[in-house]
């Protein structure tokens, strides 16, 4: 096989920009030559040392594709951003978004038992959130033979996916990756969409709005063929590419680097036509602890989570016979990377994709958005709440943010930082940290002046243990001592 290489400039892939995304012009700038050279070198080393017949890589920054490259050969030509590869378990991220859409429409709740929506499941009491996070206790694989290399016709009914012991662990207690669990989620989508096949629902509700026309259930040319590479010789063997039928939601999809860059941009920023940014942020939160002693990886609602060199990445890896795939997003840096290869094993695509994103973050750190004052008239009552507050003797600072939101920051180096969303009844709801979901209230005196803040029963006063303040338990009458 010949080795070829192709790169695409920022202008070539401008179509990767999601229509509603707006960002500072510098975010769309061409990557620096040094950065492009480093990315190409990392991809080339990964393809060569991993002995992949072909490999493509791509990077997203500021909502659009800014770099793509291909190494190796697909039918005698260098692969490029529109070359299809099978993406395996990256399919699960698409299914998870479909489920979250159903939740946001009010058709299901994440804590609903799946048996309340889907008849005949082997774990009717497992919640939908547990299925999304692989904590339902279901078996890891479908009933044999090896489902990834055999036709789905061998398992024509949902009951055919499970053996005599479908439930291996107590639901909700441990992370235990389950491919059949996502087959159930695909069936759930079909059930709540009136019997429409999950792939058709995906195309109508997700792929078409995001202009991902090269993401399909089966291969469409130009596409790579899947290969197994001999472990001790430079030889290859073709792998089958079966239609996995009911197991499709676990790993059926084919896609391209360009389409997956659009997907990565969506996962970073959201698109109200598909799923909002708040729901995507919810998917990125750890839903269950990871296995083992190394707490550098976890799982959210359909998204894998890893910590790498101080950065928290969200995305997924995938494998099917003849193919490997990885997609990682870095929300803090607004960067994402994709790697696709057509071999069963060999290249460490998960580490490679993380390295591509990390290279951009290291060599070209994200330029912050310019600070701007809060638009519109300023509420003087809200402004009067800002400034120092004390939980006991521990100083905190309350800041006013956009749209009436508040941010409480400890000033002593210890304490609990949280942001709060304004509610219509004049209270605020915690968005993160210890106070997530808790209520912040302003307690007033009879004359209408502010007495203190009540946050989940904790009292914040304007002074540190002032005798005149509403301190629970009172203040020693002798006051502070030297």
UniProtKB/TrEMBL annotation:
Keywords: Hydrolase. It comes from the Bacteria. Pfam families: Beta-lactamase, DUF7586. SUPFAM superfamilies: beta-lactamase/transpeptidase-like. This is Serine hydrolase domain-containing protein. One of its GO terms (molecular function) is hydrolase activity. Its EC number is 3.1.1.103. Residues 379-462 form the DUF7586 domain. Residues 48-355 form the Beta-lactamase-related domain.
């Amino acid at each position: 096989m010949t080795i070829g290489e192709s790169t695409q400039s920022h202008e070539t892939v401008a179509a990767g920009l999601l229509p509603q995304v707006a960002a500072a012009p510098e975010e769309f700038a061409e990557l620096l030559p040094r950065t492009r050279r480093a990315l190409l070198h990392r991809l080339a080393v990964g393809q060569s040392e991993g002995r992949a017949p072909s490999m493509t890589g791509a990077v997203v920054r500021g909502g659009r594709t800014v770099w793509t490259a291909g190494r190796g050969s697909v039918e005698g030509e260098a692969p490029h951003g529109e070359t299809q590869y099978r993406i395996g378990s990256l399919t699960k991220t698409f299914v998870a978004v479909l489920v979250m859409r159903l939740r946001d429409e009010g058709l299901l709740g994440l804590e609903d038992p799946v048996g309340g929506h889907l008849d005949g499941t082997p774990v009717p009491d497992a919640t939908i959130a547990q299925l999304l996070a692989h904590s339902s206790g279901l078996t890891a694989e479908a009933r044999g033979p090896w489902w990834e290399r055999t036709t789905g016709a061998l398992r024509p009914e949902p009951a055919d996916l499970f053996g005599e012991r479908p439930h291996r662990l107590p639901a909700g207690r441990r992370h235990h990756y389950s491919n059949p669990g996502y087959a159930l989620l695909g069936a759930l989508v079909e059930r709540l969409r009136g019997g429409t096949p999950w792939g058709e629902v995906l195309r109508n509700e997700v792929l078409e709005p995001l202009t991902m026309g090269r993401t399909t259930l089966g291969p469409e040319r130009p596409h790579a063929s899947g290969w197994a590479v001999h472990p001790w010789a430079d030889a290859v063997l073709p792998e089958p590419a079966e239609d996995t039928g009911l197991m499709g939601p676990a790993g059926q999809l084919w896609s391209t680097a360009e389409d997956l860059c659009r997907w990565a941009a969506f996962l970073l920023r959201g698109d109200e036509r598909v799923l909002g940014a708040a729901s995507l942020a919810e998917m990125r939160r750890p839903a269950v602890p990871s296995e083992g002693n190394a707490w550098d990886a976890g799982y959210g609602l359909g998204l894998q989570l890893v910590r790498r060199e101080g950065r928290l990445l969200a995305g997924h890896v995938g494998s099917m016979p003849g193919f490997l795939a990885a997609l990682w997003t870095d929300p803090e840096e607004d960067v994402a990377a994709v790697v696709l290869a057509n071999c069963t094993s060999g290249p460490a695509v998960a580490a490679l994709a993380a390295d591509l994103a990390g290279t951009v973050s290291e060599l070209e750190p994200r330029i912050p958005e310019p600070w701007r004052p809060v638009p519109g008239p300023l509420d003087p009552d809200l402004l009067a709440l800002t400034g120092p507050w004390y939980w006991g003797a521990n100083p905190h600072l309350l800041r006013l943010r956009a749209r009436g939101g508040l941010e409480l920051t400890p000033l002593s180096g210890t304490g609990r930082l949280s942001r709060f969303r304004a509610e219509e009844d004049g209270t605020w709801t915690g968005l993160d940290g210890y106070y997530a979901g808790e209520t912040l209230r302003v307690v007033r005196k009879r004359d209408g002046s502010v007495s203190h803040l009540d946050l989940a029963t904790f009292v914040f006063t304007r002074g540190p243990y002032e005798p005149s303040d509403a301190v629970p338990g009172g203040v020693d009458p002798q006051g502070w001592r030297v």
